[in-house]
Amino acid sequence: MMRLGFPVKVLGVAGLKSYDTRRWRNGPHLSVSLAYLRDILGYLQRQDIHFYRLSPDLAPYATHPDFPQFHSQIAQCQRELAAVGEIAQANGVRLSVHPGQYVVLNALEERLAESAQREVIHQARLLRTMGLGPEAVVVLHVGGVYEDHCAARERFVRQVEMLPLEARGRLVVENDDARFSVEDCLWIHRRTALPLVFDYLHFRCHNPEGMDLIEAMSSCLATWPEKVPPKVHFSSPRTATVVVMRRSRVADQVHRRTRAPHPAQHADYVDPFAFTDFLRTAWSAGLGDFDLMLEVKAKDLALLRLREDMAHFAPDLAWRLA
User: What pLDDT, on a 0 to 100 scale, did the predictor assign at position 250?
Assistant: First the structure.
């Protein structure tokens, strides 16, 4: 069976928060986020969803250098973290986390690279304190090119080698839509042994080596340990017109401008026909099962709709999706 998942925000039920969003002055805390996460896990159980991406802000300000008062949240919440982890495992829910775009491990500026290291270490420690197995991973992009593609890859490898074993054991690398391709990530894997997340839309947007889909995907799946299900990201490109509203500084007027969407932008829902073709291609090539994170704007609503679409348009495949 292949688990379908969605990231962070729940749209199917009003009022389900993914983390404590209060500003630092109001004392946000991991304990509050974990209470929210318990509610989300209950919703996942009711909807029979078994794959979920945690918010990277579950412990607010936990690695912020200017707020040391927030740095001990994991130690303060060990029991709560373990309890939530037990719920996830009892319900068969795979959890992962994807730090934001400002976590750049290969940054030229040492301060930014050290900040990224702290964040990866923190996220890995959080997953470990929850008692989760090796399938609970921290997904990261390679980072910036900084006008030297080869040096950027080398710098990423050096930073990975500096991480403690606990953090390295959770870290996985994802190909992106403009800078670092699947082939770049495979180069990093050969140097670090880090598993690779295959992102379907990113591969379509950035494949300068002209790799075949099955070649690229099978190469990424093969980087995972034998007993850990590989993780794949799937999304459909946005096709709807983008409307930009701007207020004039001279006169109190609002100007409406339209533009075409960027191919790398995510659609609200998954194209069920492209998804079906993707699965048929992968399974006919003997790639086996893998877990699918749906990176779409409608979140859980898109996942539930995709299930309905698959049951209607491809019932022979639908039964393999959990």
Answer: 64
Tokens 């001990």: give the residue.
72
At position 316, the amino acid (one-letter code) is: D
* 3-state per-residue secondary structure call for 76-105: HCHHHHHHHHHHHHHCCCEEEECCCCCCCC
pLDDT band per the 50, 70, 90 thresholds, residue 203: very high
Give the residues across from 139 on adjacent strands: 172
Model pTM score: 0.94
Least confident interval from 30-39, 82-91, 254-263? 254-263
Answer for the pair 291, 6: CB distance below 8 angstroms, yes or no. no
Of the candidates 20, 76, 13, 19, the residue with the CA atom closest to the CA atom of residue 53: 19
In what helix (H) or strand (E) does residue 256 lie, and over which residues does it extend?
A: strand 254-259
Cα(199)–Cα(176) distance, rounded to whole angstroms?
7
Closest Cα to residue 275, out of 244, 227, 318?
Answer: 318
Q: Which helix (H) or strand (E) holds 315?
A: helix 315-318
- Both structure tokens of 33: 């986020």
Token output for 74:
């994991």
Is the pLDDT at 249 greater than 70? The verdict is no
220 by DSSP, 3-state: which?
Answer: helix
Sign of CA dihedral 3, 204, 285, 190: negative
User: Residue 155 region, left (φ>0) first, then alpha (ψ -120 to 50), else beta?
Assistant: alpha
Using CA atoms, how far apart are residues 125 and 253, in angstroms rounded to an integer? 51
State the CB neighbour count (10 A cutoff) for residue 141: 24
